TrEMBL record:
The gene is Mgat4b_0. It comes from Heliornis fulica. GO terms for biological process: protein N-linked glycosylation. Residues 285-422 form the MGAT4 A/B/C C-terminal domain. One of its GO terms (molecular function) is acetylglucosaminyltransferase activity. One of its GO terms (cellular component) is Golgi stack. Pfam families: MGAT4_cons, MGAT4A_C. It comes from the Eukaryota. Residues 2-271 form the MGAT4 conserved region domain. This is MGT4B acetylglucosaminyltransferase.
């Protein structure tokens, strides 16, 4: 490494990251690396993290680690999103989410790079730094788990993507170097951790010369292609080391690139359509909300399982209400906010309340408060639960009796829109 980056000889500690926070988890099956940099317009990072953690079973959370590599030493704003621990408290505490950044002295002088392939000076500097970012992240990740998955900060993932990756890797009978779970760029590329030192050395050898996805293709050429045979033979040999999985597990959603001014409408056609809502056979009810509904995504549709409900940013005092046509005995409830395409559009600081059908009980609640270990509202509702990481679910004390209505009450202004994808 010091041969290719000689400036590091003066500061050997520059190859060690600043761990902003994390539990230093090791011994997992899958390590996921996500480099992130400041973008001039839209940021996709939070939606990416929400998507990767969305509906992830605890067993899989315990067998993976997501490393967020903040690839700008001055990028305080990005770190604060997560450092306040408002979005992923359990994941941060458990160690499934880790955030690191490089020391400023890691990067060499990038001001006098040779322009190649018709790229502008800014683009050459951007892709060169990107190669250094990937290299640093891979070196840090190599001792943490069996496999390393390269991702980007503007993607969404399919449900159960981790198990799908494990299953595909397990059924490979031949030696491989890369398993691809997306056809786009460097997204969804799986490597064996034991191969990372070789891969990083190759990247650093040519980090000034070509983009990262070209370099990985050249590495495969060096390993298996015979210069005395034709290009078709070479492609067949490379295909033995680089195996494509279908359908794709990751989709690119970013439009504004991390390269200033670059627009990229890249979509993986093999990803397919996402399931954005889930239907249940709910009892007949009238529905109402004070939220401003977006286009055709009405509350009636999510209650009937026809589509999701989508509304602009809730404010304190907003509510969603489901009033049964006939009182119902309810044992359990589930409300899920956000979906695969917009995993960050969740309900935050929102309580679940029920209105008992028994008029005497309601009057007693208003006059004397609750005796059922549930706080009571002034209009006779009982607060039985709340949204945590976008989901509210639980069992109901059967001494409440039949229920006339459910209400989701928003207690503070939200900076994001809200989606209900399952009721």
């Amino acid at each position: 490494m010091f041969y290719y980056l000689p400036h590091l000889r003066e500061n050997e500690d520059a190859i060690f990251p600043n761990v902003i926070f994390g539990q230093q988890r090791t011994g997992v099956s899958l390590v996921m690396g996500i480099p992130t940099v400041k973008r001039e317009k839209e940021h996709y990072l939070l939606d990416t993290l929400h998507s990767l953690l969305y509906e992830l079973p605890e067993a899989q959370k315990n067998d993976c680690v997501i490393i967020l590599f903040v690839a700008e030493v001055s990028l305080c704003g990005k770190v604060q999103y997560i450092d306040n621990k408002a979005f992923f408290p359990k994941e941060i505490q458990s160690g499934v989410l880790e955030v690191i950044s490089p020391p400023p002295s890691y990067y060499p002088d990038l001001s006098n790079l040779k322009k190649t392939f018709g790229d502008s000076e800014d683009r050459v500097r951007w892709r060169t730094k990107q190669n250094l970012d990937y290299s640093f992240l891979m070196l840090y990740a190599q001792h943490k788990g069996t496999f390393y998955l390269q991702l980007e900060d503007d993607i969404i993932a399919k449900p159960d993507y981790i198990q799908s990756i494990k299953n595909f890797a397990a059924k490979q009978s031949q030696e491989w170097m890369i398993l691809e779970f997306s056809q786009l760029g460097f997204i969804g590329k799986l490597f064996k951790s034991e191969d990372l030192p070789l891969i990083v050395e190759f990247f650093l050898m040519f980090y000034k010369d070509k983009p990262i996805d070209w370099l990985i293709d050249h590495l495969l050429w060096v390993k298996v292609c015979n210069p005395e045979k034709d290009a078709m033979h070479c492609e067949k040999e490379k295909a033995k080391l680089r195996i494509r999985a279908k359908p794709s597990l990751f989709q690119h959603v970013g439009i504004h690139s991390s390269l200033a001014g670059k627009i990229q409408n890249l979509k993986d056609k093999d990803f397919g359509k996402s399931v954005l809502h889930k239907a249940h056979n709910n009892p007949p009810a009238e529905v109402y909300t004070s939220l401003r509904i977006y286009q055709q995504y009405t509350l009636e549709k999510v209650y009937k399982g026809e589509d999701c409900f989508w509304a602009s940013s809730p404010v304190a005092g907003d509510y969603i209400r489901f009033t049964f046509l006939n009182p119902v005995k309810v044992e359990k409830y589930l409300f899920r906010s956000g979906n695969m395409e917009h995993p960050g559009d969740k309900l935050f600081n929102t309580t679940v309340e029920v209105l008992p059908a028994d008029e005497m009980l309601r009057k007693d609640l208003v006059d004397h408060g609750s005796k059922l270990n549930y706080p009571a509202t002034k209009d006779g509702y009982l607060k039985i639960g709340f949204f945590e990481n976008g989901i509210a679910e639980g069992s109901i004390n059967q001494s409440i009796g039949e229920i006339l209505a459910f209400r989701l009450s928003v207690n503070s202004d939200s900076p994001v829109w809200a989606i209900l994808s399952e009721v």
